[in-house]
Amino acid sequence: xxxxxxxxxxxxxxxxxxxxxxxxxxxxxxxxxxxxxxxxxxxxxxxxxxxxxxxxxxxxxxxxxxxxxxxxxxxxxxxxxxxxxxxxxxxxxxxxxxxxxxxxxxxxxxxxxxxxxxxxxxxxxxxxxxxxxxxxxxxxxxxxxxxxxxxxxxxxxxxxxxxxxxxxxxxxxxxxxxxxxxxxxxxxxxxxxxxxxxxxxxxxxxxxxxxxxxxxxxxxxxxxxxxxxxxxxxxxxxxxxxxxxxxxxxxxxxxxxxxxxxxxxxxxxxxxxxxxxxxxxxxxxxxxxxxxxxxxxxxxxxxxxxxxxxxxxxxxxxxxxxxxxxxxxxxxxxxxxxxxxxxxxxxxxxxxxxxxxxxxxxxxxxxxxxxxxxxxxxxxxxxxxxxxxxxxxxxxxxxxxxxxxxxxxxxxxxxxxxxxxxxxxxxxxxxxxxxxxxxxxxxxxxxxxxxxxxxxxxxxxxxx
Amino acid sequence: xxxxxxxxxxxxxxxxxxxxxxxxxxxxxxxxxxxxxxxxxxxxxxxxxxxxxxxxxxxxxxxxxxxxxxxxxxxxxxxxxxxxxxxxxxxxxxxxxxxxxxxxxxxxxxxxxxxxxxxxxxxxxxxxxxxxxxxxxxxxxxxxxxxxxxxxxxxxxxxxxxxxxxxxxxxxxxxxxxxxxxxxxxxxx
Lengths: 464, 189
Prior knowledge:
A: mainly alpha; two-stranded parallel ribbon; about 75% helix; B: Cytochrome Bc1 Complex, Chain D, domain 2; 2 strands
């Protein structure tokens, strides 16, 4: 097979090898890492507002209700999706054995993506909120998102179409799946909702919210994991067949489950039951993926000691297993009656988006940035510290919110306890959440600093 | 079928979309066609058939108030749904009367819907008429003046703007009133 390099790795490239330009991947990764840090500040402020509710309370644009959508949209689209797209621009040409279809189009996509994120900051702080979770952005930004997604999708699909290797590795399916499903899921959540009201609209909204995680972040995140786990450990994937089971069952099962966000709520009981049944079936794609990746690491676990990307990757997969075990369990009517609407849910959501998918994207970023810029990572030990900060902060955050949420749910189910007492009871939980949030933020700062210092060549300056 | 998708990208795309659209259409397009209560506003004038009342569109002032509710993200911390659980009907009842369960036909005019997902504060589906206007005015200025231990943010820019404040309160006092659930109309004004 032809050797492949990134342009910046100059000097060592043997004749006849494929040299990637990678400008698009670089732009996406640098901007996403920057947003991760900036939006992290907002995350900490929000956590602080639970403990000190009057904090920054006199300015309309810094109130909780305006910072929260900025936190969610900033993390989902500014950091995570952009980082995953950057990694896809790196991975797909390499798996196809060709250059990216159009580097110019890619860089234009990165520029447009930044326009969207900056537009989101301004409009959300100004209170321009459409009123749908995950779809808060005003319609003109939604249209730009669709345009950017078509530019991204076209580039990826044309690269796949021009591939040299006939057989497609599982990461290519997942990325193509993400491109296609995202298109329809996003249109449902941001445009189809415009023509509906009430329960009908809520059903479309939750089809989008659930599948934003299930059919956008899951396929592209798993594509990243399927590429980097074998790469970072120098071990072939355990089973191609199992990866097929995981992918095709995901494609069929996930989309049915949106209504499980309204269990016991004002929506048809039969639709709730369908959503519950399919939520349980989700255990199939999850187990297929997790078993495959664990079996790949068999006999190789010692490599985690030396490799920060592998630490993030395998912890991300463990969190994936836990999140996706929680999900089907919450959808059961009896469990739902306790945990639904409580603080358990943000604990669950953060484990999915931060613990699993952000860990996978961080691993990919640590792995690719030194290659993309042709420089060694600024600091291995700082990278190791960023892992432990995010891990300890994350665990503190998830577990206290689960405990707190469960406790809150039990109290709500005893209606002789006044609501305000259930708020006061959770104060200690929110203090621990704030402290854990700071640890996570420190981890994010270490990660972002390490990456940006590598990019800007702090290493070379030190050596000179 | 799936083996062919290993080597054929168009085939892979085709199957991915077909599998996706089976569930996609059956769970989004079909349900409102099957369950017509999603689109027909609640109306009942016969006490023998259960709770009476009629859901009507909001007036201009209430609409303005609703827009403020959406703008400030109230719905991130307050749900608007009495679920089919005693924990909801009992807790959100008032003066010894259980709150009626929320049904899809009560929300036909809601756009954007405000069902919510998180109860950092209490549910507001039946808040209309539980507290008087003066209570709401004081509460928006600083919730902790009335409810010790509350973590709701203060909203001085609304409390100090009479037009916005009266609109928001008009919206809230109307919440859940499509079903006339109070005996002898004992709502607060």
